[in-house]
Structures are given as structure tokens and as C-alpha cells.
Specification:
There is one protein chain. The chain is an alpha/beta fold. The chain has 8 helices and 21 strands. It has 3 domains: 165 residues, FAD/NAD(P)-binding domain (3-Layer(bba) Sandwich); 55 residues, no CATH class; 159 residues, FAD/NAD(P)-binding domain (3-Layer(bba) Sandwich). 22% of the residues lie in helices and 26% in strands. The strands form 6 sheets. It has a 7-stranded mixed beta sheet with strand order 13-19-14-15-16-17-18. A 5-stranded parallel beta sheet has the order 3-2-1-11-21, covered by helices on one side. InterPro entries: FAD/NAD-bd_sf, HdrA-like. This is Fumarate reductase/succinate dehydrogenase flavoprotein domain protein. Keywords: 4Fe-4S, Iron, Iron-sulfur, Metal-binding, Oxidoreductase. GO terms for molecular function: 4 iron, 4 sulfur cluster binding; metal ion binding; oxidoreductase activity.
């Protein structure tokens, strides 16, 4: 006997979209998300395409749809560890880590303030600190704190033991789900900047990644939306964007990550809105602004203080005295090589599939970069950036397509 239920692995924008499409036509859907909150990479952005609205704008609507649909069940801090069976009849084992905080939207900010130890925030890409008891953003879903017990001091554990909704005895658990098909919407991760040794290797303080800049610009970020230099907190008056940082490079990511040029143009607008006197330079190989984004690019580049230069950045160095960043660039048009000084440099690092380098619990083909390339005959469908680099709108379209295929499979079994 098979199952009409559908499993969605990944609770980012693609995963949520796929889950809701299936749930709203009557299928029981399970979302399995390894992080404590749903929302994925979109939750970390300041604004996203195509509407350039904050992530809360789109995500809160999706979260409300999940809350209102009894067909959707989600598990956070959860990972699929085993899959057995065949298309239409899968048995899936899910391991769930303890959250240490009981259900409910209780405000634990006063308890957080009593904790002594600060830890580096992965959500802020190392730009900020937080306590071991935290909620990533105010609109997080579930709107429920999470505790990293292993990062607590003995004193902090004593403080937490007195909090009503904190359960320090919470334990890992395992559940088994019966599903007919599986959608992999595992999303993407920024390429590891420390591998780009010629571009600062993550060691130059005022050389940040594009995702770090999103967090600096975000009101919920480590600087409450102020774009400042990490070294000294000063507002940068000159900013450079280095395109294809690790992309279109046989030694790193051998493909174009599709959205990086658009992201840098968007971020150039962030800088110009914040600092009317700032000077922005974008160094690119090819400016790729697909489809209707071409008009957006033209509008941004019409700003006489934003300059796009076709040229390859060969080296990045730091002026130890000022913290400024020196870029060695060869202009592809003039052929002239020059050193250029900026107060802040942003590396447009590429999109790498989150599952790159991991062994999946299902037998589906992946390419050399880690993108899922098949599996549909087994009732396993890839959505969003698990299949190819995409923007949010196209990720949602991809997720709808994957959901339709998953529905067709379980109904036509």
C-alpha cells in the first residue's frame, strides 16, 4: 500500500512553496528543515527580487499559509537520515535535534539578557555575536527561541534552569514517515570565501562577501541596517564590488551563479541610498542581467556615481594603516593594470548547492558541483537551487513544477 503524502526536504522559499502547492490540493505534506527556523537564505536578505521588498513581506504570508493549513506538518532541527522503498511507497527516517525550548511564542529576551557568554552568529556570517539562547530574526517561524546547550557556560545553564519554558532535559528523537514522493529543496550556500586566497581569503576585515553585506544592510542585522566597515564601524565613502568571486572558474565553481550581477547592482543601490556622496565601482567579466532585470540594471547604472568596469581583479591587499583595501585590476578594454583604493570591498561569491560534498540518503544523480540532475523516475524531484542557481521568483516557479510532478506521481501510482 503506497502513500499520497509528500516529503519536502528543505524549508526555504522553494520548499515552503512546494509544500503549500501540494497541501492546498489536499495532500499531507511534511517539511524537514535542518535549521531551527523556516525561511532559508531569503530570511537573511535585506531585500529580494523581483519586488525588492524585505523578506518578511513574502515569508510572513507563506508562514501564515502554513499555520492555516492542517495538511502541512514541519520539523525543524531535523534531517533525513534514511530512505527506503520505491516511488509511491517510501519510508523515511528523520532525526530531530533537541530545541530545549517548549512550544509557544514566549518572549525570552529578559532571560537572554541574563546570559554571560557571547557566541559568533552563523546567521550573521560571523559579523555579529549572540547568546546561546536566540531567535534569528523577529519574524522567525516558528516564533520560538532555540537553545544551543553545548555552547552554554555552567553559570548560564543554572540561569536557564529557572526559566519556565526551557527544558534542559530535552533529548534527540527519531520519527518515521510514510510518503509517496520526495521533493529536494535544499537550497544553496555561499561559496567558501576562504578558498579565494587571491581575493583576501576572508582575512581582510573590510573585504566582505555579498551575503555579509545583505546582513549589514538588514534592519535585523548586526548593525541594525547601517552599512559600515567591520574594522572600525565607519561609513564607507568608496565601495567596490568584485564579480564572479569564485564563479566561472575551473578551480572553484565552473558555472555562472545567475543572480550575482543583479545582487551587486541591488547592493550598489543600498550603498547609494545610505550614502549620497559614496562612489561605487563594479568590476565584472560580463554583466548578466537576464530578462526583465535589464531595465533595473540600466536604472542603477544611470547613476553617475556607480561605475561598471569590465576588468579582472588579480589581487586584493590591505593597507594596514587605514584598513582600506587595494585592488589590482586589469581593465579589459584599455589593457591597463592599476591599483585602486577602496574603503570597503564586496566579493560577489557564487551559489553552491547546500548538499555539495554531502552524501544523500537517497540514490539520485548529482553533477560534479553537487546539483541534483535526475531521480524523477524514482519519485524524487529537485526544486529551486538544489537543481540550478536561481533567483527567488524562479525558485518558486521551479518549486511549483516539482510539486506538480510529485502530486502526479502519487495520484497516478
Amino acid at each position: 500500500m503506497g502513500s499520497n503524502a509528500i516529503l519536502v526536504v528543505g524549508g526555504g522559499f522553494s520548499g515552503i512553496t512546494a509544500a503549500l502547492e501540494a497541501a492546498e490540493v489536499g495532500h499531507e505534506v511534511y517539511i524537514v528543515e535542518k535549521n531551527p527556523f523556516l525561511g532559508g537564505r531569503v530570511m537573511q536578505l535585506n531585500k529580494y527580487f523581483p519586488k525588492l521588498c524585505p523578506p518578511s513581506c513574502g515569508l510572513e504570508i507563506q508562514f501564515q499559509r502554513i499555520k492555516n493549513n492542517k495538511n502541512v506538518k514541519f520539523f525543524t532541527l531535523a534531517e533525513v537520515t534514511k530512505v527506503s522503498g520505491t516511488a509511491g511507497d517510501y519510508e523515511v527516517t528523520v532525526s530531530i535535534k533537541p530545541r530545549y525550548v517548549e512550544p509557544g511564542s514566549v518572549d525570552l529576551s529578559e532571560t537572554v539578557a541574563k546570559l554571560s557568554k557571547d557566541v559568533k552568529s552563523d546567521f550573521e556570517f560571523g559579523l555579529g555575536q549572540r547568546k546561546a539562547l536566540y531567535m534569528d530574526v523577529p519574524f522567525a517561524f516558528p516564533n520560538r527561541y532555540v537553545l544551543e546547550k553545548e555552547r552554554c557556560t555552567k553559570e548560564d545553564l543554572e540561569t536557564l534552569s529557572g526559566a519556565d519554558v526551557v527544558n534542559l532535559d530535552d533529548a534527540p528523537k527519531e520519527i518515521v514517515l510514510k510518503v509517496g514522493s520526495i521533493v529536494y529543496a535544499t537550497g544553496w550556500k555561499p561559496y567558501d570565501v576562504t578558498r579565494l586566497t587571491n581575493l583576501g581569503a576572508g582575512e581582510i576585515a573590510n573585504c566582505v562577501t555579498n551575503m555579509q553585506l545583505e546582513r549589514l544592510a538588514a534592519p535585523s542585522g548586526p548593525t541594525h541596517g547601517k552599512i559600515v566597515r567591520p574594522s572600525d564601524g565607519k561609513a564607507p565613502r568608496s565601495v567596490a564590488f568584485v564579480q564572479c568571486a569564485g564563479s566561472r572558474d575551473e578551480n572553484h565553481l565552473n558555472y555562472c551563479s545567475y543572480i550575482c550581477c543583479m545582487a551587486s547592482l541591488k547592493q550598489a543601490a543600498y550603498v547609494r541610498e545610505a550614502f549620497p556622496d559614496a562612489r561605487v565601482t563594479i568590476y565584472y567579466i560580463d554583466l548578466r542581467t537576464p530578462g526583465r532585470y535589464d531595465n533595473f540594471a540600466k536604472r542603477i547604472l544611470a547613476d553617475d556615481r556607480i561605475n561598471a568596469v569590465k576588468g579582472k581583479v588579480a589581487a586584493v591587499a590591505e593597507d594596514a594603516g587605514t584598513g582600506d583595501v587595494i585592488l589590482t585590476v586589469e581593465d579589459a578594454v584599455s589593457g591597463i593594470k592599476s591599483d585602486n583604493r577602496f574603503e570597503l570591498v564586496v566579493l560577489a561569491t557564487g551559489m553552491q548547492p547546500s548538499i555539495a560534498g554531502e552524501r544523500l540518503p537517497v540514490d539520485v544523480p548529482v553533477d560534479e558541483m553537487g546539483f541534483i540532475m535526475g531521480g524523477e523516475e524514482k519519485g524524487i524531484f529537485a526544486a529551486g537551487c538544489a537543481a540550478t542557481p536561481l533567483d527567488v521568483m524562479k525558485s518558486a516557479q521551479s518549486a511549483t513544477g516539482a510539486a506538480m510532478k510529485a502530486i502526479a506521481l502519487v495520484r497516478g501510482r
